[in-house]
Amino acid sequence: MSIPTDIASLKIMAHVYKKQDTDYVFAKTVESLVDTVPYIDWVGIYVYEDLDHKLVAASCFNDDLRWECNSELKFPVKNATSSEIGMMIVRTRESIAFDVTDLSTLETIASAIGYESSLN
C-alpha cells in the first residue's frame, strides 16, 4: 500500500526543494496525496495562529470527512527550530488503509513542508 504514498512524496518533495511559495507547497501537498493515493480521501494542513488554528490547504474546504472517515492520521508540522507550527491531517473512508511505511512517508512529508516553509 505504500507505493502510491511514495510516488506522492516524490511529487511533493520536488515542490519543497524548489523552494516554492509555502502556500503553493501546501496546496500541492494535499493535491498530490489525494490524487495519487487511492485510499486517501481528504488532507488538510492547519497552521497555528496565536491560540487558534487556521486551515490553509485542504483537498476540499467544504467537506473535511470528519464524520465519514474510518481512519485519521495527524502529523505535526515543525519549523527549522523544531517548533510545532501546524498539523497535517490525513483521512480515509477505509477502515484499515495505512501501513507502517505510509506512516513514515507521511511523517517525512509533514516534516519537510514545515522545515522548508520556515526557511522561505
Protein described:
This protein is of the alpha+beta class and 120 residues long. It has one domain: GAF domain (Beta-Lactamase), CATH 3.30.450. The protein has helices at 3-17, 22-36, 100-119, and strands at 42-49, 52-58, 71-78, 84-92. A four-stranded antiparallel sheet has the order 2-1-4-3. The longest helix is centred in the C-terminal third of the chain and has 20 residues, at 100-119. It starts with a helix and ends with a helix. 35% of the residues are buried.
End-to-end Cα distance, whole Å, is 33 Å
Radius of gyration: 13 Å
**Mean pLDDT level:** 88
Number of helices: 3
Major sheet characteristics: 4 strands, antiparallel
Share of β-strand residues: 25-35%
Number of individual domains: 1
Instruction: Give the CATH architecture.
Output: 2-Layer Sandwich
Strand order of the largest sheet: 2-1-4-3
Helix content: 40-55%
Q: Could you spell the SSE succession in H and E letters?
A: HHEEEEH
Oligomerization state: single chain
Number of strands: 4
Class based on secondary structure composition and strand pairing? alpha+beta
CATH class placement: Alpha Beta
How would you name the CATH homologous superfamily? GAF domain
Shape assignment: globular
CATH fold assignment = Beta-Lactamase
Low-confidence stretches: none
